[in-house]
Write a structure and sequence with these properties.
Elements (H helix, E strand, L loop, with lengths): L4 E3 L2 E4 L4 E6 L9 E7 L6 E6 L5 E3 L7 E6 L4 E6 L8 E8 L13 E6 L1
Parallel strand pairs: 2-10
Antiparallel strand pairs: 1-3, 3-8, 4-5, 4-9, 5-6, 7-8, 9-10
């Protein structure tokens, strides 16, 4: 079964921008906290950013000032706006629920590839 669905990845040159989207086919995603993770080839998965149920946000130091996490409750979508992209941002990006008051904890998407060339 598909738990979450990511979209918006692609190939861009350094300095470019992408906006990733995360949706849930079977439940109201924006009732949950959501985190973005990334995993580069040959490396450990790392946490990138989180948005809490009521809107609080956090960022990894490596992306702070360049990435913005947000949500649209009407579209029931969580976004990751990525600006000033660097080759080091190249990775598979996945979203995951953080349950909290939401019924759906630790649900993952399949991932969307982001490739940044120098």
């Amino acid at each position: 079964q598909v738990q979450l669905v990511e979209s918006g990845g692609g190939s861009v040159q350094a300095g470019g921008s992408l906006r990733l989207s995360c949706t849930a086919p079977a439940f109201t995603l924006t009732n949950c906290g959501v985190a973005w993770y990334r995993q580069a080839a040959g490396k450990q998965r790392e946490w990138v950013s989180s948005i809490e149920t009521y809107g609080g946000t956090r960022y990894a130091d490596s992306v702070k000032g360049r990435f913005t996490i947000s949500k649209d409750t009407v579209k029931d979508t969580v976004y990751l706006q990525m600006n000033s992209l660097k080759p080091e941002d190249t990775a598979m990006y996945s979203c995951k629920t953080n349950g909290g008051t939401c019924h759906y904890d630790n649900y993952w998407g399949q991932g969307t590839q982001v490739s940044v060339s120098s």
